[in-house]
# Entry
Amino acid sequence: MGTVEVIGRELFSRQVVPFQIAGVLLLIAVVGAMAVAKGKHGSDMTLPQVPPKGDGPKPEAGSAAAPATPSASQHEVQS
# Structure
């Protein structure tokens, strides 16, 4: 067994290449885990969609917000 100094000298002198390879492999594993997690839950983590304007409640007939004449799409439906 050795002290921290002896282990440090061994890692950063003779064993520097295997130490760097281990670090790169760990980095790849972390990035891969993040990609898998995002792919699995990516659609669940989005914000709720706001319905487009015009899909809301229809104004009552005779109110100020209701159009005075039917639109072209309403004419097509009625005929």
About this structure: Residues 72 and 78 are 10 Å apart (CA to CA). The radius of gyration is 33 Å. The mean pLDDT is 75. DSSP finds three helices and no strands in the chain.
